[in-house]
Amino acid sequence: MAIKIGNLEVNSVVYVPPMAGVTDLVFRSLIRRLDPNCLLATEMVSSRGLMNNPDCRIMKIADSDHPIGIQLFGHESDVMAAAAKMAQAAGADFIDINMGCPVPKITKGKDGCALMKEPELAREIVMAVKDSISIPVTVKFRLGWDENNKNAIEFGTMLQEAGANAVTVHGRTRAQLYSGKADWGFIANVKKNLSIPVFGNGDVFSLENALELIEKTNCDGVAIARGTMGNPWLAYRINQYLNHKQTIAEPSVVERLATAYDHAQLLVNYKGDRVGINESRRHVINYTKGLMHGSSYRGLLTQINNLNDLKEILTNLSYAIGGLIMQEEFLTAINQQFCLQ
Ligand SMILES: Cc1cc2nc3c(=O)[nH]c(=O)nc-3n(C[C@H](O)[C@H](O)[C@H](O)COP(=O)(O)O)c2cc1C
């Protein structure tokens, strides 16, 4: 089931959209080990920031890391256009424009979701970015600013007219942040009104959720953010099911724990000991969610200072879950580094 985003053909129904502090090169490589075709995006990049610091680490893309979008945020159309050119030169297959971020730090400067209140400015930005590059342009937005201003249908239509090649719609308003439930019914209405591909987004944490969102919204694809944290297998399992009617089993406990270790190890290799370990704390706890005894170990995992601490905690957890046999399996797995293979 291919999706055409402008001149980019994507063999993935799943899009793992931008998550600041999460979708870095390491996280993406874990998803790609299983699902090389998965549609992915970087963390968001400030277009204004890029003008002062063109050598932005977030935009680094590995050779195997395609198809990938670089997400930009900003509200100055000329700066966004210049940043888009730089992102294209950095290897992006498409540029995603952030018009959905609800965080006050971003919206107070007219960036992110604030652009939903300024559709004419949003149109200008899309047109300027389109004009500056030859790769497709996508936009990610929400249902609207708040309950009384849910303009996602008109906004999406305007973006399409301005030249956007696909959109991702998160089924919440800016005011909701992450509260309540994503409104898939509203996403269905946006989809009905557009002819470009639409990725439905919000509250997909499992294969079953993904199938339900696609059925209820008729969207071309599903964007899954939080559901992939600590679960790099999810995109692959959904794509295998939808493309090949193949049901892939959930990862085993050992696979999950070994991949948590691998994730941290890769982060340390890529970002160095201090930053790597700091950042890995937030990732490794996600791999233990839903595991027996997982909650008793999460506190310890947030305090690790090095890979040895992590290995010891995960070794103890594997023993708590499955005794000596599982502990042996875990230690063998991390020594072989088989993890996601
Ligand atoms: C930690 C985190 C960081 C995020 N960063 C971004 C971002 O940089 N750009 C963006 O458009 N959305 C960002 N989002 C929003 C997600 O892409 C997604 O729209 C939202 O989490 C809803 O999808 P989900 O229910 O699948 O998580 C972020 C979400 C989380 C949890």
H/I helix tally:
13
- pLDDT below 50 for ≥5 consecutive residues: which ranges? none
CATH topology of the largest domain: TIM Barrel
Instruction: Give the percentage of residues in beta strands.
Output: 15-25%
> What is the name of the CATH superfamily of the largest domain?
Aldolase class I
CATH architecture label of the largest domain:
Alpha-Beta Barrel
Report, as a whole number of angstroms, the end-to-end distance. 24 Å
What small molecules are bound in this structure? flavin mononucleotide
Give the strand order of the largest sheet, numbering strands 1, 2, ... along the chain: 3-4-5-6-7-8-9-10
Our Rg estimate from Cα atoms comes to 20 Å
Shape: globular
Number of domains: 2
Could you state the order of secondary-structure elements as H and E? EEEHEHEHEHHEHEHEHEHHHHH
Work out the helicity level: 40-55%
Care to count the β-strands? 10
> Structural class of the helix and strand makeup?
alpha/beta
Write the layout of secondary structure elements.
Layout: E1 3-5, E2 8-10, E3 14-16, H1 25-34, E4 39-46, H2 47-52, E5 68-73, H3 77-89, E6 94-99, H4 104-107, H5 119-132, E7 137-144, H6 152-162, E8 166-173, H7 184-193, E9 198-201, H8 207-217, E10 221-223, H9 234-244, H10 253-271, H11 273-287, H12 294-301, H13 307-336
Parallel strand pairs: 3-4, 3-10, 4-5, 5-6, 6-7, 7-8, 8-9, 9-10
Antiparallel strand pairs: 1-2
Helix pairs in contact: 3-5, 5-6, 6-7, 10-11, 10-13, 12-13
This protein binds flavin mononucleotide (FMN).
Flavin mononucleotide (FMN) binds next to strand 4.
